[in-house]
Amino acid sequence: MTDKHIDALGTSDGSSRSGGMGRGRRLMQGWSANLVQMALGLSQQLLLIPAFLHVWTGDMLAAWLAIYAAGSLVVVADAGLQLRAINRFLAFKACADCDGRTAHFYAALLRIYLAIVAVLGVLLCAAVVLAPPSAVLGFQATPTFDAAMLVMILGMLLTVPANLVSGLYRVRGHYGRTVWLQNAALLLGQIAQLAALAWFGSLLAVAIAFVSMQLLFAILLAGFDAPRLFPFLRRAGKPPMVPPSLRWSIGQFGRAVPFAVANITELALVNVPVLLVSALVTNRVAVAQWGLTRVIASLVRGLCLQVTLPLAAELGHDHAVGDKHRLRRLYAHGSVFVTALACLIVAGLLPFWPDFFALWTHGSIPYDAPLTVTLLLGSAAVAPSLLALVFANHSNRGDLLIRTKGLQLVVFLALSFVLIPQLGPLGAALAVVASDILIQFGLLALIVMRQTLHHPFRHIAFLLLMAVIVVGTGWLIGQAIIALVPGSGLVHFIVECAIWLAAIGAIASPLLNAALRERLRACIPA
């Protein structure tokens, strides 16, 4: 291979590529954008809850959580086409006419996206008429539930074509740009939700407020920003725009199936339990309790996934050009980083989540300790496998994805239907965690690590030891703070968190030494 090929996405020492940005800078920009996005996600799913409860009852909140989860599931309409496109865009980097082939593939796939939106939109409207969501999910007494559900799902469906644009940004080293644009849409959407809640107070008004900003983002990204940033896209229709053949279109769906299965399983693990608990548990308070508790575990998982996404494009490039040394080193370091981050967050949440939960819900919803511990420890356990998942998505491992993620989806659904009627929300938590550990980590992650690293089992042992030390230390410090600083209320909670952060900062302060960091990196088995 040539140095020119390696530098297409930045060299190992962080030197810039043709776009003027090195690997380290791209990763930092991507992580900073994702950090803001996660903060906005926390605001949406944590900080807005007290405002909702100030106006709505617990039943109304449970209805909104179900609507929000259904809207999040709409991304399955992508059918894996985004990751299919990403892998094709990466492959085009080795072609003589990279921009031309990218533009033609982009235009052809965009027409498929538009056809998907049109067909599914019609089917969705028919389904809502024939089987009202309020009757299916048990919210017949909630006003405007059906209309809000329709607006949420249809609106999010219209944003799906923006996935293709986001994939192109990711491959071309502009991942942070699309995330920052989405951050602006999320912020405006939250402001609009509060305004709709104050003025109208209905589920429909809040759903419209949320969806309208997402649509604005999709139109801005696909219609204006992408053609300006990538001028070659304007030439995609020349020669005359000929729709892709039916055979070619079906072929794209066939090649995208493994990625669709992987994405569907991930979304199912986050969102389907909310709907299953809503349908299988008659206690509406338990439904709200589950919805609120799983929010924090989903955010831990989401944060880890967001951290891995900027790494994914870099790993995918190294895999495409055959640079195994850089690939191995980046994967090993990235795996440790993602796992340490998840464990550190869980270590802080375990001791202080009960106090926050009481403040967050104003004591109106009871705290469930076994449910919380199960979900949080499961989030830490699955963290190493998330990097393996995104790397498999960006290295065209379709066969591996469809076998492992398909099996995980089956295991999760089977356990859910067995455990939820017996154990309620705890059964849903056990189904999620068990499918993660047995399949995603035990099969997918292990296979990817064996194919990527020289010493996969030593790497796993290193991760396990690090996880025990980080979670155990953080939890013990939290318990000591709780014992030494008794009390209750918001000020007391803030003081507890501040003391914990100061203690963790003091313990981690030696990492500010560059020489020590390099020695620790050298200890990571790769």
Summarize the helices and strands and which ones pair or pack:
Elements: H1 3-6, H2 23-55, H3 58-73, H4 81-92, H5 98-130, H6 133-137, H7 145-158, H8 162-171, H9 175-199, H10 203-229, H11 246-280, H12 284-321, H13 324-360, H14 369-393, H15 398-423, H16 425-452, H17 456-484, H18 490-508, H19 514-523
Protein name: Lipopolysaccharide biosynthesis protein
Region (Disordered): 1-23
Subcellular location: Cell membrane
What does this structure look like?
- The chain is an all-alpha fold.
- The protein has 2 domains: 219 residues, no CATH class; 270 residues, no CATH class.
- It is built from 19 helices and no strands.
- Helix 12 packs antiparallel against helix 13 and helix 13 runs parallel beside helix 17.
- It is globular, with a radius of gyration of 23 Å.
- It starts with a helix and ends with a helix.
Short recap of the structure:
This protein is mostly helical and 526 residues long. The protein has 19 helices and no strands.
Mean pLDDT: 83
Total strand count, please? 0
Write down the oligomeric state.
Answer: single chain
Distance between the termini: 22 Å
Low-confidence stretches: 1-20, 236-240
Taken in chain order, the helices and strands follow as HHHHHHHHHHHHHHHHHHH
The amount of helix comes to over 70%
Sheet having the most strands: none
How big is the Rg?
Answer: 23 Å
| Count of DSSP H/I helices | 19
Shape: globular
Structural class estimated from helices and strands: mainly alpha
Number of domains: 2
Strand percentage lies at: under 5%
Protein name: Lipopolysaccharide biosynthesis protein
Main location: membrane
Keywords: Cell membrane, Membrane, Transmembrane, Transmembrane helix
Region (Disordered): 1-23
